[in-house]
Structure formats: structure tokens, C-alpha cells
From TrEMBL:
The protein, known as: Large ribosomal subunit protein bL9
Family: Belongs to the bacterial ribosomal protein bL9 family.
Organism (species): Streptomyces tremellae
InterPro entries, A to Z: Ribosomal_bL9, Ribosomal_bL9/RNase_H1_N, Ribosomal_bL9_bac/chp, Ribosomal_bL9_C, Ribosomal_bL9_C_sf, Ribosomal_bL9_N, Ribosomal_bL9_N_sf
Gene3D superfamilies documented for this protein: Ribosomal protein L9, C-terminal domain (3.10.430.100), Ribosomal protein L9, N-terminal domain (3.40.5.10)
Amino acid sequence: MKIILTHEVSGLGAAGDVVDVKDGYARNYLVPRGFAIRWTKGGEKDVAQIRRARKIHEIATIEQANEIKARLEGVKVRLAVRSGEAGRLFGSVTPADLASAIKSAGGPEVDKRRIELGAPIKSLGSHQVSVRLHPEVAAKLGIEVVSA
């Protein structure tokens, strides 16, 4: 099935790309979550608009991405969350929580879709997350989750 990506999808492409994927993947995952729309001749007009929006939000050069990476890696992020007695969290830490914690810690504004959690963060302590700034640049960020 031919689709137009509306958001960046790891391993598949960036917003505005026209890609061919299996029918079930498009029908059951990408389209319902808003990551893609079905390709049509009329939808081809949307590609230019999506690409213009992507250019506004994306980091243009590797130098700019490395500069933001240096700023991110210099920030110490502490996130206060509710937890039980054994250090287990009530729920888990989401990329949106991390994006707001980075900004409040004095770091640069990061889009929540660029934050990649290796596994769900469900306990107190130090954790590592990756922030994909550019296709070739990713920042490793240390997060300390503390009890509120």
C-alpha cells in the first residue's frame, strides 16, 4: 500500500515521504495513529505542505545538531514522579514528561517525538535516553527519576 508519512517514523522515513508498506502495517498502525495518510492523487498536493512544515521544525545542519547535542548533554535532568514504597512508579515516564523536564532544567526545547526510550521507565534512579536530533546525530541524556 502506498502511503504519505505525516510524521517521522524510525526505519521508514520522514514526514512528507511517499513510501510503500504492507497493507496491514498501514491500515492497523500508521493510519490510525496519524503517522500517515493513504496516498491519492489529491493527497500528493499535501506532500509539499508537509515538507514545508518539516523544514520549519527540523534541524537543518549537522553543526546545528551537534551544538544542540552539546547543550543537551550538559543539562542535568531531574524528574519528580509519584512512586510506591519499593521505588516502583505509578505508571511510567513518557517522552512528553521528559521533554518538559528538559526544558524546565534549562535545556533546549526538544520535540517529544525525537526522544527514544529503550524500555519504559518504571522505577526510580538514573536512566539513559536517546534524543535523535538529526539522522546522523543522537544525544545520550542522563535522567534521574526521584520521588515526589
